[in-house]
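> run fold Protein HGH1 homolog
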Amino acid sequence: MATELEELVGFLSSPSPPVKKAAVEIVRDLTGSEDGLLSLSKYASTVLPSLSQLLKDKKEVSEPAAEALINLSLNSNLAAKMVEMGMIKTAMDVLYKPDSSITRLLVMLLVNLTQLDSGIVSMLQIEDEKMQGLFVMKLVRSFCRSSDETRDDPFDHVGSILVNISKKEAGRKMLLDSKRGLLKQILRQFDSTSPLRKKGVFGTLRNCCFEAENQLQNLLLISEFLWPALLLPVAGKRIYSEEDASKMPLELGNVLSFEREPWDDPEIPVEALESIYLITVQEAGLRAFWSVNGPRILQFGYEDEEDPKVMEAYELVGSLLVHGSETSK
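> ok
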């Protein structure tokens, strides 16, 4: 005889809209507690496909279904099952339907699923040569187009997906591919007013800089976006002299010649400095850094800095610069 929970799970596929709506809301509420999650996980092979189907339904049903899936995906075993059953493709398909009403929730679900290696592989579409990178290109386009700072942006969380996929070499290579031009688009968002978006940009850039040894050329190809993103967060508060600014690219010198808003989050200058370190470890990267008057910017930034972690990151790059200038004498 079916248990109450089995019956409830069965109702998720009911042809009656009111029954289906009531069932999905109860399931969503159950996923809010550890006991509920544990109970539902025993029926994963039925619950997950049923909830996946409901993502395509009207908002009153698709919204609680998406919320339930987000909660369930916090369990790595259930997240792995979701990836295996093609949840990333389903979420992407629904996300890009013209009438999609659960955009933010679907993006959050994708954030959770791309924390798994299998989720990253699925998002990158590595196993399908013709489609490879299509999902990532779509998400980057949405991330860069949707930055309407006046409202709650459903694509803000895409930054976290980009951080996740850039933790893997295949993801970094895709983002650094000059033909796709994805990193260049992402970097344009570095001065967004959204803290979540900024975190995504700098976390992704830092991860991509781990490829500097093999991909330095592709990083330096986007110098006009790269150096402002890396140097403005670490340039300190002062207004730079005309002489100093004249030794920098226009896009940097112009901004540093005026008063600027301080960067609130110390994590961002740390990630910028770690990225600079990874670039300047390479000889050509160090030369490029000197050519934009980078050491002068770091000197001023360090003098203005008070956060010990950020100071430590400055010092790490500083030791490299001192060594670099000594060896080049």
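The CA atoms of residues 85 and 119 lie 11 Å apart.
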